[in-house]
Amino acid sequence: MNPVLVEVWRGNAIESEHAGAIAVVDAGGTVAHQVGDIERPIFPRSAVKALQALPLVESGAAERLQLNDDELAIACASHNGEPEHVRTAAGMLAKAGVDAEVLECGVHWPYQDAISRALATRGETPTALNNNCSGKHAGFVCLACGLMGWNDAGLDLRQYVKGYVRPEHPVMQEVTDALQSTTGFDLSRAPRGTDGCSIPTYGIPLRHLAHAFAKFGSGIGLRDGQARAARRLRQAVAASPFMVAGSNRFDTAVMQRLGERVFCKVGAEGVYCAALPERGLGVAIKSSDGNNARAAEVVMAAVIEALVRLDDEERAFMRRYSEVTLKNWNGIEVGSLRASQALRSSLRA
């Protein structure tokens, strides 16, 4: 049974609790901090998008297509579907000579209500470009350019890309290889499912995920091409953190404030992963009840507070996320959302 990591207070009493597990691992594979079960395979979902983007850069496709910081950052993103995100993903596809019709991520309304209302007011409906995974999928399409030899073999990109979400497609084989080589976990024997954007998702223990992000943040333990790709992706995200999430999102706010000291990425069902390059550490979090904003974000904020070099203003900034004031519809303070004392104590050990 995983311990309580986050408490929901109403007045002076605990109203709810969120349990979970955390692994903090260095690039050599040594566990620096452990809370709960870090050996049970969990589906990391979108938290590993940066690892899935490594082949895009390592293959030379990103350089050949002259993908800029915005475009590389959105390849790692779970974005809001705001206009800037839509334009950036569309721009990547244009560089590859295709359009949004090749995307196989599906369609959903933008995450931000204001953006969805603006679309509806204009009489428009969302497209695959509004999907939070459109940047990642645009990256897969760009990777396909490199894998097919840049049309040198007379292949039609649109036909070559078709079905790229299937496990047996060359694009997904490259992406899966990157995930296996960075985590060091045998994916052929791992639980497998289908992610929300239709690509395969594999069950991987938190310890292996944290180790992968320690390697992603330091380059240690990666082959040379992967290490260069990881460094380029980290630089791009630090330069364009808005593309990774968007307005009023934890990932964007934290990376805007802390730059290359933190790379963090949310995944569905209460998963969070991070690289802390200055410390040479990787972090992987799973909220047992699948809660993101009310639990996993609070845990990640507490981890950053404890393990990243912060000045007083930065520490106060992070405290707003690890101890969240809760107000009702009249603006009256009614309680708080807090990292548990047990969690904070474990991170000090």
Automatic annotation (TrEMBL):
<dbReference type="InterPro" id="IPR010349">
    <property type="entry name" value="Asparaginase_II"/>
</dbReference>
<protein>
    <submittedName>
        <fullName>Asparaginase</fullName>
    </submittedName>
</protein>
<dbReference type="Pfam" id="PF06089">
    <property type="entry name" value="Asparaginase_II"/>
</dbReference>
